[in-house]
Write a structure and sequence with these properties.
Layout lengths: L7 H12 L10 H36 L8 H40 L2 H23 L4 H20 L5 H16 L1 H31 L11 H14 L12 H32 L1
Length: 285
């Protein structure tokens, strides 16, 4: 087997090792070979991580201090960031190009986007490059391009933070965060549907109370709350434990019963389920 760093045999071997279900393999003598390969490539990994972190630092400086068109440094800052982003994009296309010869463009691109980090890199850099070019050409405020700017910053900052994996002291923390997020998908789906369900219940109860007040002629006591408002209140209760939003609503037995059920399910059951998911992920990592 060719264990030369970057060779096909070497990469396939590392993928098999990564996907191995038996963790005891990392206690065997094979770890010596892994350490040896790491010693050969670690400085390239460090360089790549530092480039990403500096890029993230420049993004923050540009967005915080040089994003005002009235500042004289505005133009130079956007030019620097445009050039830096183009260089980073060339790096991304090079990653695709490496496997282009053996796999073809389509399969190479598919394998490239299977890695979530690559998606954040590619989409974030394309979005930021479009934003910079638009700013250099028009130098005007456009809310849609500002939204694009915010989206690009979010993706690129996440990518920069992920580069902290280059340090052993932070590597397992980054790994744990990514595994927790992946494990939370099912939990978040359940939380979303339960929050919507309780919001609909509160919305119907509120409408019934308004109808009763209208029949009694107490028009001044009628309050208008949309389904979106009720969802917002239910979400605050579930995530933040905000009871103040419901203080004025607990004026009938049915309201109190639904509020109690919501509190028990959202705060006690769901949050403890979240803690269990995180603990299980921590044990795996």
């Amino acid at each position: 087997m060719n264990h030369e760093p970057g060779s096909k045999d070497s990469l396939n071997w590392l993928r098999c090792l990564k996907d191995a279900e038996n963790n005891d393999i990392f206690l065997s003598n094979l770890i010596i070979l892994v350490d040896f390969k790491w010693e050969n490539v670690k400085y390239y990994v460090y360089l790549d991580g530092i480039v990403h972190l500096i890029y993230g630092l420049f993004l923050g400086i540009d967005a915080s201090f040089f994003d005002d068109t009235e500042k004289k440094e505005y133009f130079y800052s956007k030019v620097v960031m445009t050039v830096y982003t183009v260089i980073m994009l060339i790096r991304e296309f090079y990653q695709i190009r490496i496997k282009w010869v053996d796999q073809g463009f389509y399969q190479s691109f598919v394998n490239y986007i299977k890695d979530g980090y690559n998606v954040f890199d590619f989409c974030g850099q394309i979005a930021y490059l479009v934003y910079c070019v638009e700013k250099l050409v028009t130098a005007q405020e456009n809310k849609y391009f500002e939204y694009l700017h915010v989206s690009a910053l979010f993706m690129l900052f996440i990518r920069a933070i992920s580069q902290l994996r280059i340090k052993e002291s932070t590597r397992y923390l980054i790994r744990m965060i990514t595994e927790v997020i992946a494990g939370m998908v099912s939990f978040l789906i359940i939380l979303l549907f339960s929050t919507i369900a309780f919001a609909i219940v509160f919305y119907k109860i509120h409408n019934l109370e308004n109808e009763v007040l209208e029949m009694e002629g107490k028009l001044e006591d009628i309050t208008e709350l949309s389904l979106k408002d009720q969802f917002y209140f239910s979400f605050k209760l579930a995530i933040l434990g905000d009871f103040d939003s419901f203080a004025e609503k607990l004026n009938t037995p049915i309201n109190f019963i639904v509020f109690a059920l919501t509190s028990i399910f959202q705060l006690i059951v769901m949050l403890n389920l979240l803690i269990a998911v995180i603990s299980d992920t921590f044990d795996k990592v």
